[in-house]
Specification:
Elements lengths: L2 E9 L3 H17 L4 E6 L4 H7 L5 H9 L2 E6 L14 H11 L4 E7 L12 H4 L3 E7 L7 E8 L5 E6 L4 H17 L3 E6 L5 H14 L6 E6 H10 L6 E4 L1 H14 L7 E5 L10 E5 L16 H13 L4 H16 L17 H16 L1
Parallel strand pairs: 1-2, 1-3, 3-12, 5-10, 8-9, 8-10
Antiparallel strand pairs: 4-5, 4-11, 6-7, 11-12
Helix pairs in contact: 1-10, 1-12, 6-7, 8-9, 10-11, 11-12
Bound molecules: 3-isopropylmalic acid and magnesium ion.
Length: 368
């Protein structure tokens, strides 16, 4: 059995607690002979600032580059609210994305049957929901230059962020979306604002051109604001949704909440496929560091465990093992396992470690 090298970056807040559950699952997969991993740990975010004065050291970046995949918990928290913008916790995550070339961010929003009542929307609107948001992750307003605050002659200030996209950046993310759609229901919606933004005009034009290579896939263009509205009106109309970095950030939070809890959703950030057929990859929950509940054994570890399942699928070609792990999450939920965020009001809830154990028990039951 191949041993894969995983770099674990637990980060801040609830990151270390949910990552500990992934380590439990990794231990079980190894013992059961399903997948073998060699793990290394490093710091990212506020914990790296405390130890090294930067949110990601060059050494940690080099380890990430050398690993077969990176798993990241979460970064940030009020403790670092006043550090300089350049070294804020989020800069560690952004550097990983940019320097590893992780341009394709896959954010599935799946509503587990057992959780349909935890959604803010009515059960019939979200039951069976299965959307894949494909967010461009290394371009757009997150990284465009200039990005600055300058002082005007009258002493007032002027802030600039720059939204930039090139043909090549749009083409490669469009290919990711269309390729994924082929393995799903064959539908892509592309969200931009061509009615206001030049980058939206180019986005729409390039996506349309790439679509010509995928005549078996249906393409719909939607304005990003309308898309946000449609997501809460009739979310099941969407399958694959491709969009830029900033709209993707916003729309993926909306989609996440439809599923009942932000604590449920994993994500994959993927680079280009190289000549050996492999690609750089980072897997992380969509939720943040939740400092208000950190260290209390109440955080939901399922998004982090689901991120390991995505790593099995997208980095290691272990689709069956990924199905097994996703199935174990579904089984654990179906058997009533709930952390506080997804439990019915007043109902008994498991802690973070208890939920990790429930997933391992479900894995055991599945492999008999
Ligand atoms: C996300 C987060 C990040 C982003 C932050 C932490 C920089 O919100 O991954 O969605 O804006 O991309
Ligand atoms: Mg976000």
């Amino acid at each position: 059995m191949t041993t894969y090298k995983l770099l674990l970056l637990p980060g801040d807040g609830i990151g270390p607690e949910v990552m500990a559950q992934v380590e439990t699952v990794i231990g079980f997969l190894g013992q059961a002979g399903i997948a073998a991993f060699e793990t290394e740990h490093d710091l990212v975010g506020g914990s790296a600032i405390d130890a090294h004065g930067v949110a990601l050291t060059d050494a940690a970046l080099a380890r990430a580059d050398a690993a077969d995949a990176v798993l990241l918990g979460a970064v940030g928290g009020p403790k670092w609210a006043d550090v300089a913008y350049e070294i804020r916790p989020e800069s560690g995550l952004l550097r990983l994305r940019k320097d590893l070339g992780l341009f394709a961010n896959l954010r599935p929003a799946i509503c587990y049957p057992a959780l349909a009542d935890a959604s803010a929307l009515k059960r019939e609107l979200v039951e069976g929901l299965d959307i894949m948001i494909v967010r461009e992750l290394t371009g757009g307003v997150y990284f465009g230059e200039p990005k600055e605050i300058t002082t005007l002659p009258d002493g007032s200030k002027r802030a600039v962020d720059t939204q930039v996209y090139t043909t090549g950046e749009i083409e490669r993310i469009a290919h990711v979306a269309f390729d994924l759609a082929r393995k799903r229901s064959g539908r892509v919606a592309s969200a931009e604002k061509h009615n206001v933004m030049k980058s939206g005009v180019l986005w729409k034009e390039v996506v349309t051109r790439v679509h010509a290579e995928y005549t078996d896939v249906a393409l719909e263009h939607v304005l990003a604001d309308n898309c946000a509205m449609q997501l809460v009106r009739r979310p099941k109309q969407y399958d694959v949704l491709v969009t830029d970095n900033l709209f993707g950030d916003v729309l993926s939070d909306v989609a996440a909440m439809l599923t009942g809890s932000l604590g449920m959703l994993p994500s994959a950030s993927l680079g280009a496929v190289d000549d050996k057929g492999s690609r750089k990859a980072l897997y992380e929950p969509v939720h943040g560091s939740a400092p208000d509940i950190a260290g209390r054994d109440i955080a939901n570890p399922l998004a982090m465990i689901g991120s390991l399942a995505m790593a099995l699928r997208y980095s290691f070609g272990l689709g069956e093992a990924a199905d097994l792990l996703d199935g174990a999450i579904t089984d654990a939920l179906a058997s009533g396992a709930r952390t506080r965020d997804i439990a019915a009001e007043g109902a008994q809830a498991l802690g973070t470690a208890g939920m990790g154990d429930a997933v391992v028990a479900a894995l055991k039951a599945r492999i008999g």
